[in-house]
Write a structure and sequence with these properties.
This protein has strands at 3-12, 15-17, 27-29, 32-44, 47-54, 73-80. The chain is mainly β. It has a four-stranded antiparallel β-sheet with strand order 1-4-5-6, with no helix packed on it. A two-stranded antiparallel sheet has the order 2-3. β4 and β5 form a beta hairpin.
Length: 115
Amino acid sequence: DALSLTATAVYTGKWADINRDGTATGLFATPYTLVNLTGNYDFGNELSFFTRINNLLDRRYQDPIGFQHQGFGVFAGIKLAFDVPALPGAARCLYRLGDPTRRRPGEGDPAACAE
């Protein structure tokens, strides 16, 4: 499973809005559908390539009214992860971050972080 592909379609129907200062009511936004694609390829050894296509159909829409959103867009990159050892003394308090599983066996003493 080195390759993963995802497609999403988001439909937004007609909805009521007001102008910026709230003095005009009865404004209705035009419905629109957005199609987005993402892909990721894992080369192994902590190296992967990713790409994302937003607004594949290049729909012009405003949300809220008066604020034009981007049209078609392509983004891509390479992700490289490093397994860097924690700073001295930092590992002993990782459980404070809400994930006690992040401590490696034998690293740190939870009692040392008690206040």
